[in-house]
Structure formats: C-alpha cells, structure tokens
Amino acid sequence: MNRLRVTFFFTISLFICTLSRSLAQTSLTPATPWGTWLIGTLVLPGGEKKWGGFAEVQARSNGVFNQYFYNELKGGISYDLDKNFSVMVAGGRYATYDYQALSDGPLTIEKRLWEQFTINQYLSRLKFEHRYRIEQRWFSNRDGTTPFRNRIRYRINMFVPLNNHTVTAKTAFLSMYDEIFLNPIGPTFERNRIYAGIGYQFDQQWILQVGWVNQTNYNPATFESGVYTPQSATGKNNLVVGLIYRIKRKSTSEKLPTQPD
Q1: Which one, of 191, 197, 238, lies nearest residue 70 by Cα?
Q2: Mean of the pLDDT values across residues 97-105?
Q3: Can you give the pLDDT at residue 228?
Q4: Helices (DSSP H) in the chain: which residue ranges?
Q5: For the chain, what are the domain ranges?
Q6: CA 31 from centre of chain
Q7: With CB atoms 3.0 to 4.6 Å apart as the test, which of 50, 85, 235, 253 could cross-link to 81 if both were Cys?
Q8: How far is CA 70 from CA 9, 97, 192, 257, in A?
C-alpha cells in the first residue's frame, strides 16, 4: 500500500509540474473551442519474430465531434532489438481542410517519412517510454508551393497500471506524456504536446484510451519595420479518443499501450 501511495504521489506531482509549465507558456483565448482527436490503430507486436508494425487512421475536428478539418493515414514497420529497444521506419499522408469548405479539397497535403528509436523502462509500477524520431516532410499546398522540412521529436510517456502491477488483460491505467518538436534550421523550439488520459486494456487485443491533449505552437520573434515582436505561443485543448487493436503474437514481455502518434 505504501508503494502504491508513493507511485500515485509521484505521478500526480510530475503531471502537475508539466501541466503548469505548459499552461504558463500557452496563450488560450476564451473563444478557442475544444477540438477532438479520434484515433484508430492496428498494431502487430514484434513477438518472437521481432518484426512488427502498425497502421493508423486519425481524424481531427475543430470542435467537439464537429467541424472536421484534418485526417492522417499512416503505417510503419518495426524491429525489436530486445524487450526494451525497438526501431521503426514509417510514413503517412496528412491532409488539412477548411472545415467551412470541405468540398473545395485540402488546403495542404503532407507526405511524411520518419525513422524512430524507442527505449522502454520498467520501474516496478511505473513504466516509461522514451521515443526519438527524425521526420522528412514534403508539402503540397493549394497555392502551388511545395516546401520541404525536417523535424526532430522527443516524447517521454509514462504509464501507471491501477489494478495490476503490469498492463495486461482487464487493467485500468493512467497515461501521461510530453513531446517536444524541434526544427533543425530554426527557430528550434517549434511545438509542445502534453497529454493525460485514462485507459483500459480489455484483453490482449483491445485497448481504449480517453484523455486530454494540449498542442502548443511557438511563433518566432520578429523584427520588421523597426518593430520588435517577441516570441508567442498559441495552444488548443482537445478531447482524445483512441482505440487500439493488437494482433495476437507469442510473447512473454509486457507491451505498453502506447499511441504511435
């Protein structure tokens, strides 16, 4: 019982510190509505063969279950170096629309390729995932421009099973993460994403998560016509509903219920 209390206190303290930092740096106006992220994921674990992968579809709306404006289709191949280390190569298509004029087609279509390295840590009741990603991004905008960008991402994700010591069948769990997005050519700090949610793993296949995510974009400082404008940050809160189906494979190691994106 004492260990459970310490785990709970550590979890809440870390979340409050991260939340305070995020909100201190984020400008949210009263008119900014909550959005919605709906995520459906099919996962093939590495298992004894070590080779795995995933496929995912995602839809986002500007409001809560309305004003749809964005979708993602992506997938990748992974390889487990051992139970704590894995690598992945993946790609996807990302389309952004004007929710008031969906029939006009996408404003922007992005095609993305990324390389990823993941480290898992199992500290008794606490489970940590460290994810490092390098992205190559090709854009096709409605105005005819086709820019290319690189991006670096790092995410630390913490899981706390509530009614079991491991995340297995019939387990409720907490999940929290913070992810930073870096631009290698500057301005360096581009985006921050913080998430907190609760999930339930029904069996070895089905996992449901519901949570909150705040995504904050950082605009660089500018100096134009003798006027200095400091760096600004604008963020948006979103309701996240994620459903994962994990294909059965022989494995003796614990699998964290991580969200691929």
Answers
A1: 238
A2: 94
A3: 45
A4: 2-24
A5: 2-26+35-246
A6: 25
A7: 85
A8: 37, 6, 19, 24
Residue 6 has pLDDT above 80, yes or no: no
Tally Cβ neighbours within 10 Å of residue 180. Answer: 16
The answer to whether residue 142 scores a pLDDT higher than 50 is yes
Token output for 2:
């004492």
Q: 178 exposed, middle or buried (CB, 10 Å; 0-12, 13-18, 19+)? A: buried
What CA–CA distance (Å, rounded) separates 148 from 158?
33
In sequence order, the 6+-apart residues with CB closer than 8 A to the CB of 122 are 84, 254
Q: What is the structure's pLDDT at 232?
A: 66
pTM of the model: 0.85
Cβ neighbors of 244 (< 8 A, separation 6 or more) are 41, 42, 43, 206, 207, 208, 209, 257, 259
Neighbours of 12 (CB within 10 A): 13
Specify whether the CB–CB gap between 90 and 64 falls below 8 A: no
Count of Cβ atoms closer than 10 Å to residue 192 Cβ:
21
The 3-class secondary structure across 170-199, one letter per residue, is CEEEEEEEEEEEECCCCCCEEEEEEEEEEE
